[in-house]
Structure formats: structure tokens, C-alpha cells
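Our preliminary data section would be incomplete without showing what the modeling component actually yields. Below, a chain of 271 amino acids is followed by its predicted structure, encoded as C-alpha cells that our downstream tools consume directly.
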Amino acid sequence: MHLALQIRDSSPRSQKIIIWNTIVQHLYDQEASKHDFLVSNQHLTMRDDGTLDIQAQGNFKLAEFALGQMATHLNIPRDYVRRMAGSATGLLAHNINHWLQQTEAKRTVRTLGNNLRTYLSDRYKILDHLPLMQAISPSIMQNGLQIVSANISEEKLYLKAISPRLNGEVRRGMRCTGVVISNSEIGAGSLAVKPLIFRLVCTNGMVMDTATKRYHVGKRNEFEDFEEYISDEARIAEEKSLFLKLRDVIQGSLREEFFNAQLDKLHFYIL
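Predicted structure:
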């Protein structure tokens, strides 16, 4: 699941294109094993080994993040849940199963292979990494952006890209503009695109306050229990519309007028 890449500024553009393709391929490789379900608590059962059964769908290993989400939803102290998960999974199953039966709710459950990675509200709005990357790829390539770092963990995607063609001087060192893109598929953060002022003489970048964010919250999903809804056409169309707007944000962040305005602000605060 985890992919971490650091790219040197001196790396040739061809290598940076390979890096971009590596990221996209990594996400494609996961698609076949990703499934999303809307399920009521009463159709979930934890086994004594700490795994979770989804009725009629199979048995899954609970990710630590998903277990924490479940603890919060069922109002069981997280520290107590972590302690039971470490040394008393039978007791954990007894507690979880009791409160699952007592708590009537539908939850969005996301799986990857044999792992259950989320236990979320039925209002959770799915915004996945792959369609995001597909939507912004033309802007990345057309503007000659250089990916300087990329990290895809179980919890988040994080990309930092710069545009060396737009640069300017602010007291010490040349600075150029770029964007920071972050997203979570499991409820660990919002989807965000933020303009970046990057200092070329070091590896740090200053993220600007101006940002576009989209939280993973929407209308309740109106599906029957266990119905898999990852292929729902309306959701995909809405998702595509959002990602296209984010692509426009990237384009706006790379305008020379915007960059110069940000440099003016830095001159005011630094000098």
C-alpha cells in the first residue's frame, strides 16, 4: 500500500514522467481489490481473533485506523480498544459485538483485499486518489510541473509539485511556485489543493493560506444493505466534476499574476 518517492531537482524530465507514471500505476494496481459497501451494524460481527465478518461478504482484517473509527462510533474508549486488540481480542469481540447490536446505523465500509480499512458514516463522500490523479494529470504535464515528493500511505496521498519556469527572488534564495495536493480515501483528512511557494536552495516549501478543500461529507447513501456502490454512475459523475474544478485551481495557482502577488506579500513580511 505504501509508496514514498523523493525526486532531485536535477533529475531529468523523463525520469520525472516515469515517477508520475509509477504513482498512477500504483493506484491502478489497487483498483481490482478495492470494494465499498453500505452495511448496517447488525450485519457486522467481530470474531475472537479480532477480524470482522461482513454478512454474505466475507471476513476481513481490521486496519488500526478503522478499529479506531469503530471505537469512536460505538463510544468505547480508544485506549481500552487498543489494549484489548493487543492482548485480549476475545474480550474486544465481546465488547464490539454487544454495542454493534445496540447501535442501529448504516456505515460505509471500504475494503482493500482482505483488509477492512474504513468504518465510516453513511454520509461519507468517496473521493479516491486515482480519478483525482487522472483529472489533474493534464495540468501537471502541460505546465511542466516537477514532482519533488510523493507519498501514498494507508491513510493519505500527498504530492508536492513545482514549476521552475515561474521564479523570483525574496531576500535569500530563488523561489518558484507550485502546488501541494493531499487526499484521504479513508476519512483521515479532506481533499485539498494548496498553492506553494518553494525555495529552490533548500528542500522546504511554504504552503500558502489560499487553498481549495473538499470534505468527504455529502447526502446519505440510499442503498440496501451490502449493495456495493463503487460503480454508481451519479457519484462518479459528481466526483469527476469536482476533480475538474481542482484542475482549474492548479492552473490558477500557476498564473504569473498570482505568483507575483504572492512574492509581493513575502517581500512585505520578510523585508
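The chain is about 40% helix and 30% strand. The longest strand covers residues 157-169. Preliminary results of this kind motivate Aim 1 of the renewal.
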